[in-house]
Amino acid sequence: MSHPQPQAILVLPRLRIQNANAIASPLTHGFPSITAFTGLMWALERKLTQAGVPLRLHAVGVVCHHHQEQVTQGYVRSFNLTRNPVDKNGGTAAIVEEGRVHLQITLMFTVSEKQVSGAASALVQDNPTQLAEWARLAGEVLAGMRVAGGSVLPSRPVPGKRVRPWMDVLPDDPEAAATVFRAWRRQWLPGFALVGRDELLAQRLQHLRATQPDATLLDAWLHAARFNHQPLPSANGTPAPDGKVAWGDPLRPKGSGWVVPIPVGYAALTAPHPAGSVRNARDTSVPLRFVESVYSLGEWISPHRLQSLQQLLWHPEADQAQGLYRCRNGYRPSPQPGNGGHPNGSTTDIADDWDDEDAYAYT
Known about the structure:
By secondary structure, this protein is an alpha+beta fold.
């Protein structure tokens, strides 16, 4: 079944989220998983339909302006936990560890109109009144929802920035699209956009296998998720006169970017179970499948470094045969000499040869 192309962008700027889920997966923390925002996208579309807004949401982008993880300060950090009420016998209830983070984020969705057969389209360039009304309704609906488990607080005025939801039509002409995107991205400053960097994981695996032929994707992911300090050679290749040796991570030089490990979806552990066959399932009307998290690498970059809207957006993708449910991002870095992302300084993008069947094979 072919899906309609996105026609417009819906932007929910400067959302203040209180107590969002900071534990994105069993192995990562600090910011909600991108799957939390794709789930929000689907839930928002359903609620908009109930409110009479005929919009279909296709992809989501997120820009973080401020975050405050609720943790103790120091070299070793732990989550700030809440004490539960006493149990029925008056004893102390167990503490369930949960991570929380306060956020200020901007969310943007590409949308298309759910047109009724024979009806005229309302999503047109010269219909700002209708676009403004749909954006207002989307903001009102979202105000009563949870965003990554957190509560939405009223936005505060920001000098020179739009804080109310807005919509705009996507131009068909590439040059016009580039022009309006440059205007949009200025509204998202200061902040950092989360983009996918699958190719860096492939490059790190290639680098490890040069010396460790048995290295796995998990080894590469863990290696890329930390700093690996070692003695660094001097610029001219000769020892320093004072005998001092500089230490650092040669794969993370200055200017190599804010690269982080992130969960990007789920991989199936079992075949689908028929609807209603698993007790205590959240929805007994759809098949159920047990899964585990899928990990990759992402990067936080300033929105002014993005060249197009597609570089910002995350698209949900499902492969039933392979059992892979993950999010894809359209970001590709511009080739630059000495690109810090590649272990050997090469700008070759080997993600084009990335094979999910190899990436998620367990044997």
